[in-house]
Each structure stands twice: as structure tokens, then as C-alpha cells.
Design a protein that fits this description.
The chain has about 325 residues and is α/β, with parallel strands linked by helices. Helix content is about 20%, strand content about 40%. The strands form 3 sheets. A 6-stranded parallel sheet has the order 3-2-1-4-5-6, with helices on both faces. The termini are far apart.
Length: about 325
């Protein structure tokens, strides 16, 4: 751990202001929307009008403000949003939330998600019920939860060539034109295995219902302190997913094969050469999500994964 500490030092480039968030009343509320989404203009205006009607100061992320084209609203870039906002409402899908969550993680700004996408694992408030549910939240009827992130450093020799955060997962994989890669994996300085495969997914509990799940990994409840390692099409069928302690440090070396790549939440991609090293650990930052009162992670799983598609007789007895 000590050897790699230097690679993670000074990771946060923007230092957040020191202030305390009041969970019962958020006075300055930021609105951040997905650019170009169908019908988002009306939703954003409706949201801004509602917040002003209950006495909140509304600030709008600068790109979102271009979508709104409403000169009555004050806009700032994301860095300034982080410094000013007590709360941010993200209007879009899970992909929008992923990007915003990573950028706001170090500022401890709680997030609420209004869903305009398909799944809505993280943006859980439906557009049709947006205003009454937000009214409840601002009156203190809410559920709060924290979600962990991963941070990764890529080394080429002793040189750091990339640093990144991931809310869902960090994926080390072969390139599109390459064959299998061979990855050497160490955990807390102990050799675990050499793996020949199409790649390896390192996932947070949040990401366990994303790419990791489709590759055969387990679902982890968001409150669990763990990191999931899921091989992608491993050459050996005995190479199975494993859940590691959230306090561990994982080092992956590209041992042989063609060049590979590393992506962070499928949004930041860096190429790998042979013998490059990827160091991954849990970030010291976390994201706080606010939900309507009565929100349940199990309800979300049942709805999004269609576990209740064919209800049994026992299910009807509730």
C-alpha cells in the first residue's frame, strides 16, 4: 500500500469548500440536465419554476442553461456549481448521473435523479411524479444512502499516464482487433492469478448490476464494502467472479498478448501496452443519493430486473 500511495496523492485537483449540508432544507439547488434529450426543455422549466415557488435559490449548470434559454436563471460551470450548491437534481438517465456523480464526488453534494432514460437504477424519480415526490423530499420525507467509487492509476514504468474515478466499474480488456490478453492480478501485494481472457471487470456494488452482472457477476447491495472482480470470457472455466474487501488494493499487469485498454464507466478510455500496470482501490469519496421516503433497493431490483414479471400465488398474498 505504501509503495503506491504516492500515485494517489493529490488526486483531487479541485479542493471543495468546507461547509455542512442541512438534510432537512436545501437552500441552493442546482439543476443539471441531459443535453438534447427529448422533452427535457419542458421538464427543466417545470422543475425550475417549482423550486423557485418553494423559495429555493436555483442555479443551472452552464450547458443545461443553453438548453433552457431562460435568462431569468443563473448559470455556472460544474466547478462553481460544486462550490455553491447544497443539492443537485440531475435530469436524464443513469449515464448522465454517472458522469455528474464522478465530478461532484469530492464536494459532498447530495444528488437526486429524475429519470428520462430507460433503466433508472440511479435516476429513480419518474418524470410523471417529479413534483409531488420532490415536494415530499423538501419537506424532509426522504431516504438517504451513500455509494462508493473506485479510483484507478495507470503506470507505464514509473510514469503515471492516467488517473480516473469510476462509479460503476473499471474494465481492463483486449482491444477490438486483438485476441485474448493475459493479466497478472495481485491483491494487497499477494499474487492471486494469471488470467487469460477478454478482460477483467472491477466493479463497485453500484456497478454490480451493470456490465459485471451481464458477465456473470453477483449483485452486491450498495451498503456492502466490497469490490467485485468479474472475468470476461475467461479461457479457464474455473476462473470465477470474486468479491474482495473494499479496503484492498488491486494491481493488474498486462503480461502478454496484444495491446489492451482500460475504461472508467465506459466514458474514459486509455490504451495499454505490455507490462503497463493498473492500480485500483476504493476512492476516499462517496456519493450521497436522496430518494423519496419509502424507497427500497429491492423494489428497484424487482422492477428493473423484471423479477416480478410472473408473480406467484405467494406474491399475490401480500
Amino acid at each position: 500500500m505504501a509503495e503506491s500511495q504516492k500515485y494517489f496523492s493529490n488526486y483531487v485537483l479541485i479542493v471543495p469548500m468546507s461547509h455542512t449540508k442541512a438534510t432537512s432544507h436545501f437552500q441552493t439547488v442546482a439543476i443539471i440536465g441531459k443535453h438534447g434529450a427529448s422533452g427535457i426543455h419542458e421538464t427543466l422549466l417545470e422543475l425550475a419554476d417549482f423550486l423557485q415557488s418553494i423559495g429555493r435559490t436555483v442555479i443551472v449548470e452552464s450547458d443545461t442553461a443553453k438548453e433552457l434559454k431562460d435568462k431569468r436563471l443563473t448559470s455556472f460551470d460544474l466547478e462553481e456549481i460544486c462550490r455553491r450548491a447544497d443539492l443537485a437534481i440531475v435530469v436524464g438517465g443513469d449515464g448522465t448521473m454517472l458522469g455528474i456523480a464522478r465530478q461532484l464526488a469530492s464536494f459532498e453534494v447530495p444528488l437526486i435523479g429524475v429519470n428520462l432514460g430507460r433503466l433508472g437504477f440511479m435516476t429513480d424519480i419518474p418524470k410523471e411524479r417529479m413534483l409531488p415526490l420532490l415536494q415530499d423530499i423538501f419537506e424532509g420525507q426522504l431516504a438517504s444512502e451513500k455509494r462508493s467509487l473506485l479510483e484507478g492509476v495507470i503506470l507505464r514504468g514509473e510514469q503515471t499516464i492516467f488517473k480516473g474515478l469510476a462509479f460503476n466499474d473499471i474494465v481492463v480488456s483486449r482491444t477490438a482487433a486483438a485476441g485474448m490478453v493475459e493479466l497478472r492480478v495481485e491483491v494487497d501485494g499477494h499474487f492471486m492469478y494469471n488470467q487469460r481472457s477478454d478482460g477483467l471487470i472491477l466493479s463497485t456494488p453500484t456497478g454490480s448490476t451493470a456490465y459485471a452482472l451481464s458477465a456473470g457477476g453477483p449483485i452486491l447491495h450498495p451498503e456492502l464494502d466490497g469490490i467485485v472482480l468479474v472475468p470476461i470470457a475467461p479461457h479457464s472455466l474455473s476462473n470465477r467472479p470474486i468479491v474482495l474487501s473494499g479496503s484492498c488494493e488491486i494491481v493488474i499487469r498486462l503480461a502478454s498478448g496484444y495491446e489492451g485498454s482500460v475504461n472508467f464507466d465506459m466514458q474514459s478510455i486509455t490504451n495499454l501496452q505490455q507490462h503497463d500496470k493498473v492500480i485500483v482501490r476504493r476512492s476516499e469519496h462517496a456519493i450521497t443519493f436522496l430518494h423519496p421516503v419509502g424507497w427500497s433497493y429491492y423494489d428497484t431490483l424487482r422492477e428493473k430486473l423484471h423479477w416480478n414479471e410472473y408473480p406467484s400465488v405467494l406474491g399475490q398474498l401480500k
